[in-house]
Design a protein that fits this description.
heterodimer, A: 362 residues, Multidrug efflux transporter AcrB transmembrane fold, Alpha-Beta Plaits, four-stranded antiparallel sheet, 6 strands, 9% strand, elongated, B: alpha+beta, Gyrase A, domain 2, 13 helices, 19 strands, 18% strand
Chain lengths: 362, 547
Amino acid sequence: MKFFKGVDFFPHGTTWKIISWRYLFVGMSWALAVLSAILLVTRGLNYGVDFKGGSLIEVQAKAGTLDVGDLRSKLNALGLGEVQVQGVGVTGQEALIRIAQQKGSKEVNEDKAQSLANEKVKASLGDAVSIRRTEVVGPTVSAELKRTGVIAVIAAMAGIMLYLWFRFEWQFAIAGIVALVHDVFITTGMFSLLWYEFDLATVAALLTLAGYSINDTVVVFDRIRENLRKYKKMPLEQLLDLSINETLSRTVLTSSVTALAVLALYLFGTEAIHGFSFAMLFGIVIGTYSSIFVAAPLLLFFGVKRDWSGVKEAAGKPAAATGQTGVKAVAGKPAVAPLDKADKTPAAKDKSGKNTPAAGRA
Amino acid sequence: MLHFTRWKTLMIVGVCALGLLLPIPNFFSKERYDRLPGLLQHHIGLGLDLRGGAHVLASMNLDELKRDWYAKLTDEARKRLREAKIGYTGLGAAPGGGVQVRLGKIEDMDAALKALRPMSSSLPNASIAAAGGSDIDIRREGNDLIMIQPTEAGINARVGQAISAAVEIVRNRLDPGGVKEVSVQRQGNDRILVQVPGVEDTKDIIEAFNVAKLTFHLLHPSLSPETMGARPPPGYEVVPDRDKQGVSYLINMSPLVTGEDLVDAQPGFDNRNGEPMVTFRFNQRGAVLFGRVTKENVGRPFAMIIDGKVLSAPRINEPILGGSGQITGSFTVEEANRLATNLRSGALPAKLTVVEERVVGASLGADSIEAGKRAAIIGMLGVAAFMIFAYGLLGVFAVIGAAMHVVLVIAIMTLLGSTMTLPGIAGVVLTIGMAVDANVLIYERIREELRNDKPTISAMDQGFSRAYATIIDSQLTTFIAGLVMFMLGSGPIRGFAVTLTLGILTTVFTAFTITRLLVSWWLAAQKTRKIEAPLSYSPARNKMARP
């Protein structure tokens, strides 16, 4: 029977010495992170209405194209403070109008002032355009959304770190979380650099990114752990290189397919998910980079437990997840959970009948 | 790993069949859907961002609510002390909320406490023994002071009641017949969320947040805001006119009759000039009160005040004894209708302020659906092309799995009656990519095993079993992020979280059952003993030095 078996185009058995170049990569990442920090401090983020308060009005010309410059000067003459007008879409028919949060006065509070400003803008837009979308967020809500956003990002990272800690040793958890923070931080920096709007959808993208970018890292870590058991005497540097190279096809290909799906969103989605898909797309790229060039080299820095054999023989089972380095975990933490979990996977696999010397995974 | 028992196979096929059948009602016309048996009436709702509509979040003024409550408590305390004939030197707002009374004589303390105690009522299902289970706490403080202070639970109950009442009132105002698709819900502690599909103007919604308090007041017999001097005389306040800019009146703030005694309000037309107006009718108590007041004050002007604005200040020409009257002013027909509805539905317990407003036009919604569909289809095609190019037949299996994943997400959402939003569509598209990630991990592992000269079956078996834990690990991290979003996010973000978390669950299912089942069927269909590997693999370029 003949059928197409696919093309194994990704080079295998590569021997790239990534670890020996680690100072270059770590330096690069530091540079990007510092650059992001500088941008975030000096320039800040282009917060959308969700976080800044104020209003957003999306308009579309009923016929012909929209004269953005004319619209801008017309609206800025209303004396409502800063009114931004930005043409969007490819047809030249649509524009986004952003009105800054209005200040309240004695007679009218902030919310009322804002709705008055919106009315003014809508009135001066006239009949030539139709209003497609309006978003008005008051100062209390925007402050709340900002706070919730920050809490969400921290909570997600803490959750992921806790999970990594249960599944691996603490060095892996920390290296993983550093890579994760790296990805999220630099993506945020990118938003500052390009001055893309940063809103709720962007935060959702960052959260998803946090969950997704760790995937590749987990794949590499899994292989490192597998190889640690397999090659007990191999120098760590060499072992890390081997693991990275072995999993390179997986790390790159999984990211590529997901990036492909997100690319479709970026190219064919509407204005509202543009920021979201950009954050995801950039994040996937930087996440793959950090899985290969940052997370593993960090393990060298933190050091890992090498003597897996002792645990294996003593327990009569393939190496348990907690070990000597995890003394703290055994003593103070619910050691049952990680032990139990780690024991199950290799053991279960052995039961499946196919015995291989190493208890490892993809 | 590649063997399936008969019942397992049946179950997987059953789940897929169910997944394909469940979403069908989504495509039915309204009439056909309504004729379905109730058990099958499940469908995915479209979020406002996709179907167009308005979303308005309003926040209740809790300070006002508390102030009103404390004022009532003060009145009640005064009444009770007077009835018990207990003298007091000071009665008023207590620092930190509530009311305080300073007694004239310390000997009265016990009697005063006894008289005031019935003011507090126990809260329904109050399990908090520490708070005494009552809404206000009445206690002696120092020598001669009695504090009447609301408990934490009391305030919460009060706010809860007020919000629930406001939700009902707003719903009645927006949708008196209960036929429209208007959603009014409490959100958080002190907020009300109104969502109305298909509406592109929030004016009507915001109008429904008006307090709608109708009261009748006398004007000051001699003074006007211009002649009163620097400050209004005690008991009087300056109230602006609703329509005429700059006109205001000096009003006696103690209302003669209030809207609480109103039993009906209807829009109508003035038969003298044909202008829109609102007619109202009092209950018996209101009619008696109104009759007495108008009799006593013939010739004097009185003011009708609605929501803190004077609607009109006519002169009482003759006593109005029948208990019904009319409100005229420069109304439009809609205004008259709205005012009548608002008056009928009663007054809101406190002021509601709009804090967030999002409106999406129906045309943008339709465009978003189109764009979402296009992105999903193109994304799917791109992913399919990639997978088939890289993995051939196994790639086809993966694509079938990914397609099934989309079907299952939609099926579960249908079953739960979830709402699809634009970010939700993004979540589906994203998880299409993630769904095949699992397959990539499995297939690459198979290739690796093949490269190490494993026989086909064993390599494939290993591929699935070894990749399993890695996939669970990696999906779980995304799942954690999804859960956080679901818990903390609102509206569209929650829609994204729903499809993301559901998508992750179905991804694991499709990669580990559907593609695996397809692979096992393929293996079973092979007649030869020595099965040819279904994946091509290039030999490793150079083996790494392995000790």
